[in-house]
Structure formats: structure tokens, C-alpha cells
Please model this.
Amino acid sequence: MKCAVCRGPAVIDLRRHNANFCADHFLKFCRDQVVRAIDDHAMIGLGDKVVVAVSGGKDSLALWDVLVDLGYDAEGMTIGLGIGDYSAASTEAAVAFAEGRGLTLHRVDLREDYDYDIPTASAVTNRVPCSSCGMSKRHLIDKAALDGGYDVVATGHNLDDEAAVLFGNVLHWHTEYLGRQQPTLAERVGRAGSGDGRRVFPRKVKPLVRLAERETAAYCVLRGIDYIVEECPMAEGNRHLRYKEALNAVEAASPGAKQAFYFGFLDRAASRFAPDADGADEELPACGRCGSPTTGDVCAFCRLVERVAGREPVPVELVRPRRGGARRRQARTKARS
Amino acid sequence: MKCAVCRGPAVIDLRRHNANFCADHFLKFCRDQVVRAIDDHAMIGLGDKVVVAVSGGKDSLALWDVLVDLGYDAEGMTIGLGIGDYSAASTEAAVAFAEGRGLTLHRVDLREDYDYDIPTASAVTNRVPCSSCGMSKRHLIDKAALDGGYDVVATGHNLDDEAAVLFGNVLHWHTEYLGRQQPTLAERVGRAGSGDGRRVFPRKVKPLVRLAERETAAYCVLRGIDYIVEECPMAEGNRHLRYKEALNAVEAASPGAKQAFYFGFLDRAASRFAPDADGADEELPACGRCGSPTTGDVCAFCRLVERVAGREPVPVELVRPRRGGARRRQARTKARS
Model:
């Protein structure tokens, strides 16, 4: 197995590119893919201040590493989710990475700063943990970007993530989500009062959309980045992982299928689901508590905090989904709502 | 396990409907689903003459049986494809069904009538067999419908078929195919000279789209219909079957996922891919040989016949795809085209 570039011994084969690479040319391949994603989708401009959403996993650490390597002004932000040992180890990996490279890492901790954690939120709301987790992370990273004057939020979503999300959106024909599934979401301005008073959502970009998760893992190994290998114990058995498995079966038989699926969508289908230009420019009202844009009086984050803050912490083991448990809990929740 | 209707002993459980049925109420369920599909999608009008494309498998025989049972004027047509024992047994099942019920079955045989068969066509053109097979069947059923004065062609595509085709079209974002994937395709008129001189494509309908293939099989068993159980030996390992497997995995975890995928598409997405109304009305030129509508001078069917008719028959075993063989052959064909 020889490197497609230098014919030296290869360390990885990329079936969908029908190519093998040595360590150096694989790292270059990864950087080139990020550069191309940034260019193709107008992700980061010259002199932009970037904040990277860092979980401590392979994707976010690889992303931060590549962005710094490419010369971007990229700081990190990590959120302590309170998911037992998993969260502790994740934060540790993020801190170690930042300290080892002298990078700035901003930290928020749900329990310390808002008096709740994800297992407790899941138990109290009786919803799958991924629901309050995703919403909390989106709210806090948006807030950090606006408060801190960052131009853009970068997240580590890779090709497998985006293809699986797209598959889920297509399976249910969530046309509204399909209209928003883009590698770059433009910032939005409005009358809500958060941040600098005009921007209500920061620009959000996914520079790893051209890399598969096997590739970001290999990138970290070759760069000597210690990342947390475990998947979140609360996500076990969730739909997203099932969609990944179904697409993995297709990809195994037809290498490149995921890439064709995701980029074919962007090229030939996404615009058919684009929201009305009118609707997109509409000014969102501000949350009465925190000033974030919301469709109601109080935003979903403030409502969650109000409901779960200060409640007796529930250990992760008690809400960890058993086999089939997540589905059953979701089914019950849906029937009630 | 009790019947959801009469509380008698159930013989089948339908997870996606969260219901079990006894034999009688399951047969009623199947008929009701066909009636609803016909109504919802304006498939067959009062007094329409129907021709059913009959393969001898569970779907086409169940379809013919239900349509006759519902009082439709439905004759059958079957095509001898020359795929060894499989085709012989398929034709036998179709003939036995028609004779047992005193129904009219029209027969075409590729080798007798056009001097080729599918294995030979596949070997000579060096393409996957499903390619010449699908095209030949479409051409001959259209021709039979126009020549015979039938108002509508009914095919046995079931929910699993349509969901798998949709998955394939979505994976590749074949927007043109997505624009045409409908349970009812309206007839088209034009200047091509086939049939009655005005209609160039007959109306085509899929009345089984609300039934899964497990259900059409159960229908046949309960109605005492002898159908050919084997899958086509030449289709083994093809993409369509892989897409079915991927969706089966999703369906197993989320019963109803396929139905939501397919009908959600029809409800909320299909119109976004609809062809230009202008283009659809455009008059297609007629094939110089057979008068069928075509985009070139000679239609694809006449070109295939010209290329393969009279060639030494190739036995099915010689072109039967080995594991992975279909994919490799297709890859080569693509690279060449």
C-alpha cells in the first residue's frame, strides 16, 4: 500500500477517494479538505475571530488543531454537561489540549453556572437527554460568541454526522430542517437584545464536512492529540446512531455514497427547501429573561433552567437508556405532547 | 394475539399499524388499503380497462386478485424474460393463476417474439441485467396497453419497493427521477405514432403502495395463491436490494418509518422536484422503427433489439452476478460511458 502522492509507505486507505496516503500527505489531505470547505462555503473571512465548540472528542480537537495550523484566530469553548465520568474526561481532554498548545479555552459548567446538568434535565423533563443537551449547547455557544465578539462559531460536525442528520431529515421529510441544513449558516440580525444588540445569531460553520469520522480520528492519532474515545453514554441507541449504521452499510458496499448523498443534496436539492427570504429576515422577539431571540416570551433555555435548576442531581446511571429504552421514553413523551 | 377488529385469534401482526388481524380481517385490510390508494391517487376510473403487469411473484398476483375481487375489468400480461428456470417457473405461476380463475393473460416472450433474452442482452451490452430487463418490460407493457386499448397499466410495486427506489433516488439526488416518482403517472399524448395515434404513454398506477411486501406475501398465502417465491437470480446483490436492507434496519427499530418516508415524500417534497409543466407537455418525436416516443431517432428498445437479437443465447449461469460482481461490472460500464 503506497501513498498516492509520494509512493512512500501508506498508513491509511481512503476507499471513497480510491487513494492511500502516508502520514504527512494524509495530514495535508485533511488540511486541504478543510481549506476547500471553508472556501466553497464562505465559512471564515480574513481576520475573523473564531470560537470553536470543543467537546474533547476527535472532531472538535482535530478542527481546532487544523484551524490554528491554518493561521486562524481560533479560541475554544467547552461546556461541562455533568454526564458523570464522561463529561469529566471530556473536559480534561479539552483542557489538556489547550494547555499543551497555549490556546485560550473558555469554560462553562452547567452545574456550577446554571445549577443543573443533562442527566437531571432529562429525568425531570422526561425527554431523551440529547434534546436538552443539544438545546443547551446551542444556546450557550451562541451566547458566548455574541458576548465575546466572535465573528463565527465553528463546530466539529463531520461528513458522517451531516449525512446521518440529512438521512434523518429526509426519512421524516422535515422540510424546515432540510431548508436549514447547510455547512454555513449566516448570522442573523434582529431586534432581540443579546450580544452587541444587532446580531442575534452568530454565523455558524462546519469546516469538517468533507472529512469522515474515521479520518478525523486518524488525524488526531497522527498528530498525537489525546481525545476522549468513548461515545456519550446517554446517546446510546439513539436514532442518529441508527441512521449512521444504515448509511455505513450503504457506504461499505458503495464507497463515496455518503459524500454523494450530502454534497448532492447541497448542489441539487437544498435550495428547493430554502425558507422564504421574507421569513428569514423577520425580526425575532427577545426572550424576557436573557434577551436571546425566541418565538415565545421566554426562550427554551430559560424555560429549561427555570424547570430544572436546583433540583436534586440525578446520577447518569439512572437515566442512561437501556436497550430500547430511549425509544420507549420518546414514544411516551410524544404521546403526551 | 387477537384480531383488532373481531377479537378472534390473529394470524398476523402489523407493527407499523400497531394491530393484529385474523385471516378475514387481514384480507379486508389489504383490499381497503388498495381501495384507499386507488382513491387517494386517482388511479382507476369507473369502467377503465386495466392491464396488470404480471411476473408470477406475490405482488403482481396479489394485485390482480384484489383488482378482480374489487370488480375491476383487469386482464394480465406477462413477459417471458428467458432467465433460465426462474422465468419458466414465473410464467407457469402466472398461467396457472389465470387459468384457475378464467382470467385473460396476454403473453409476450422475448426469445420467441424478439429473438433475445435478458441474460444474452446483459452479456452483449456488458451492463447489469436489471438495466435491459426494466427497459424491455416498460416498453412492452406500454405497447401492449396502447395497442390493446387499455386505459391503465397496473404494476405490483409495493411500499418496500417504492421506499427503496426513493432511498436510491435520494441517496444520489436524482432530481429528475424524484420528480416522476408518483403512485400514478398520468398518460401522455403527443405526436408519436404508436397505439391510438394520440396517447404515447398509458397511465400507470401502483395500487399496492400502501402494503408492505410481507403483507402481499401473507395475502397470497391466505388466498391460496401459488406464486414464485424465489427472487430473480440476476438481481442478487443489486443496489435496490441493498437499499431495502438498509431501510429494513431502520424499520425494525422504528416501525412505520418506511411508510412515513414514502408518504411524507409525496405530501411534502415531491412537488418540489416536479418537472416543468411546459416540458411535460412537450411532444416527443416517434421512433423511426416502432413509432414509440423517444428522445432520439430510434428508441432504446429498438436499439437493444438491433444489438442483441439473433445473438447466440448466453446461459443465465454465465452472467449471474457473483458476490460483488454486479457492482464491479457496473463500475466498469460507468467508467466507459
